[in-house]
Write a structure and sequence with these properties.
The chain has 376 residues and is α/β, with parallel strands linked by helices. It has 14 helices and twelve strands.
Length: 376
């Protein structure tokens, strides 16, 4: 991944030179020189707002000594836009770089406003384009959305899948994997597997929670004691609860929104993780499952195959194939040693997303954006 980053050190002319023409000594750049405004939906448990990857990154940067400002806790579109623009103006002496978590549809209007404001304020701006639905949105609104995004000083994506999709639109993006504090997740050995399933995602059509319910119904026909927790919230939650009731499913729990610091308990109590998205990029919940030692069954979509290699670090099925997912769960239950081997390989892969692995990629990106030199 690091090889894909641009060469950052400016060339030094060869041959003798008069002292007066020697290049100035390089400045050593580190995170303590970074003054950042992070623009994202900040965690708000009372309103069911989850921790975004940009918010997690802001915390990691602050631990490294960076000066980080954050906005916004507003959820309504107009109030959010006003809060962002007001913060950019009133705090303009306290930051050099704006980094915004870009989302499609209504959320893209905030990115457009931030990019234009950054130009007026003479600030650098980075777009974190972590959504798998982003390329389709840009394609549909190519005439105006693509030129706006191109005006960002850098566009960061989490997977090669999204990078390649953006390249088709003429947008050059820098791939940097999601950054996790891997020590926050305890890997658990599961020498014996029980049919205790876990699903963690938003109840949204793109995440296809109905597929998980359908797969679980098939598993429960074989294992009457099977249980599943579906963790998260979203517009399809009431419909899914009703569907589970109509199917007469037992031991199926819908806790709704859970604070991020409490999510680990659900991973610890489960034995198999299900991921059912129809489109996806580099889902954080999948990485968390990998770090927790859970054998995984996931849909083969978007950037997921970059995380899970079928038969090696987990099992992949086609999107919408509930029977295939149920069969994969049965396979894992029938061969716990094989499941444990895949979980170990998944852990090794997930550790590539630790902050110790990704911090230099971010350091080089900020160096490039700020046009400074870095000494490794």
């Amino acid at each position: 991944m690091a090889s894909q980053m641009a060469t950052l050190v400016r060339p030094v002319p060869s041959g003798p030179a008069h002292p007066a023409t020697q290049p100035a000594p390089s400045r050593r750049f580190d995170f303590r020189q970074l003054r950042l405004m992070a623009v994202t939906n900040l965690p708000n448990p009372e309103r069911g707002i989850h921790v975004t990857q940009t918010a997690l990154l802001a915390d990691l940067l602050e631990r490294e000594g960076a000066q980080v400002l954050r906005v916004t806790r507003q959820t309504r579109f107009i109030l959010k836009t006003l809060d962002i623009l007001l913060s950019l103006w009133t705090q303009r002496q306290r930051y050099d770089v704006i980094q915004i978590q870009t989302t499609p549809y209504h959320g893209f209007a905030n990115t457009a406003a931030v990019i234009l404001a950054a130009r007026l304020l003479r600030k650098r701006v980075i777009s974190n384009y972590f959504t798998s639905a982003g390329p389709d949105f840009l394609r549909r609104h190519r005439s105006w959305a693509v030129p706006i995004l191109r005006r960002a000083d850098a566009v960061v994506v989490a997977s090669e899948y999204v990078r390649n999709r953006l390249a088709e639109l003429g947008i050059i993006a820098t791939p940097i994997p999601h950054s996790l504090q891997t020590t926050d997740w305890g890997w658990k050995t599961r020498p014996r597997l029980e049919p205790r399933l876990l699903w963690v995602r938003r109840f949204h059509p793109e995440c296809d929670p109905q597929m998980a319910i359908s797969a679980f119904a098939r598993v429960q026909k074989v294992h009457s004691q099977a249980s599943m927790v579906m963790l998260g919230d979203g517009p399809l939650l009431p419909e899914c609860r009703q569907e589970a009731m109509m199917l007469g499913l037992r031991n199926l729990l819908f806790p709704g929104f859970v604070r991020h610091e409490s999510v680990r308990d659900f991973y610890d109590q489960a034995d198999i993780f299900l991921h059912t998205s129809r489109v996806d990029n580099q889902p954080q919940s999948l990485l968390e499952a990998m770090l927790s030692g859970l054998p995984i069954v996931a849909t083969r979509v978007g950037g997921v195959p970059e995380l899970i290699e079928h038969g090696h670090s987990g099992l992949l099925v086609e999107p919408g194939d509930a029977q295939g997912m149920a069969d994969a769960v049965q396979y894992l239950l029938s061969d716990p040693l094989r499941a444990q081997e895949m979980a170990r390989r998944a852990l090794a892969r997930a550790q590539k997303f630790s902050w110790s692995e990704t911090r230099l990629l971010w350091l080089k990106l900020y160096e490039r954006v700020l046009e400074l030199r870095i000494t490794e």
